[in-house]
Amino acid sequence: MRHPILLAVCIAGASVVAGCAEKDANATVERAFEDVNALDGNDLSDVMLTVADPNEAVSYFQRVTAEKPDNIDHQRGLAASLVRAKRPTEAVPAWKRVTEMPGTSSNDHVEYADALIRSGDWATAETVLDKVPPTHETFKRYRLEALVADSNKEWKKADSFYQTAVGLTTTPGSVMNNWGYSKLTRGDYPEAERLFSDAIRQDGELFTAKNNLILARAAQRDYTLPVIPMDQTERAQLLHTMALSAIKQGDVQTGKALLREAIDTHPQHFEAAVRSLRALEDG
User: Fold this and answer.
1) Which of 19, 32, 34, 110 has its CA 20 to 30 A from that of 199?
2) Residue where a domain terminates, one of 193, 214, 229
3) How far is Cα 139 from Cα 160, in angstroms, rounded to an integer?
4) Would you tell me how many other CB atoms lie within 10 Å of the CB of residue 233?
C-alpha cells in the first residue's frame, strides 16, 4: 500500500523540480532578451546618430527620452540629433539639460557651447567654455575657443587656439579654412591665401576654402585661378566670384571678361553670371 503513496510523492517532487527548472529557464530567457534589447537599443542609437536622417533621429530620441527621461545617453542623442538637423534653437536647451544631469562630462559642456554658437549666443558660449577645465584638451574645444576669440577680435588668442586645434586633428582642413577667413577679415590677405591653400591641400573637396582662396587673391588684385583641384562647374563658380571681387574693387572691365569666361566655362546655363553681366552692360 505504501508504493502508490511513494509514487505520488515522487511524481509531486518531479513536478516541483520541473516547475522550478521551467521558471529558471524562463527567467534566463527573459534576461537574455533584456540583454539583446539593450544591445539593439544601443546599436539603433548609434545608427540614428550617424547615418539616419537627422529629423528621423530627432523623432526617435524624443520618443526614447520620453520613456526614460533620466537616461543621459538618450538625452545626449536627442541634443546631438537636433544639431545634425540644423535646429540649434532646440539643441541649446537640450544640451543645457544634459550638462545639468548626473554623469555629465566636460565634452557635454563643449557640445553645449557649440550649440550656443550655432544659435548666435556667443556671450553664453564663452561663459560655458570658460568653465571647461584646462585639462580637457580636444580639437573641438580649441576650435570653438578660436571662433569665440575671433568674434571678440582677440587676434593673438584666436591664432593660438587655431594653432592648437590644428595640432589636435588629422583632418585640419576645415579649421585651416576658419583660420584663413579670420586672417581675411583682418586684411592679412597673403596669410589668408596661404591658409586657404593649406586647407585645400588637406581636403581637395572643400569648396568653401577654394572660394575663400579666390577672395584672398582677388583682394590683392590677382585675378588668375590658382592650380587647385576643381571640376568645370567649380571653375565657373570661382571665375564668377573673382569677377564680382574685381568689379567691387573698381576693375570693371576685368570683371566683365571674367563673367564672360565663367558663362562659357559652365557646363549648363549660368544664370547668376548672366544676370551680373547683363546688369553691367545695361548700366
Assistant:
1) 110
2) 229
3) 13
4) 14
Q: What CATH number is attached to the domain comprising 185?
A: 1.25.40
CA–CA separation, 214 vs 144, rounded Å?
A: 25
Q: 144 with 107: CB under 8 angstroms?
A: no
Is the overall model pTM greater than 0.85, yes or no?
no
Whether 235 and 200 share a structural domain: no
Tell me, yes or no, whether 168 lies in a domain.
Answer: yes
Mean pLDDT computed over 62-81: 95
DSSP of 239-275, one letter per residue? HHHHHHHHHHTT-HHHHHHHHHHHHHHSSS--HHHHH
On whether residue 141 sits in a domain, the answer given is no
Query: Please, is 227 exposed, middle or buried when counting C-beta atoms within 10 Å of its C-beta (0-12, 13-18, 19+)?
Result: exposed
Confidence band of 135 (pLDDT split at 50, 70, 90): very high
Say whether both 244 and 258 belong to one domain: yes
Query: Which of left, alpha, beta for 154 (phi over 0: left; psi -120 to 50: alpha)?
Result: beta
Counted domains in the chain: 2
CA distance 4 to 20: 24
- Segments forming the whole domain that contains residue 178: 163-229
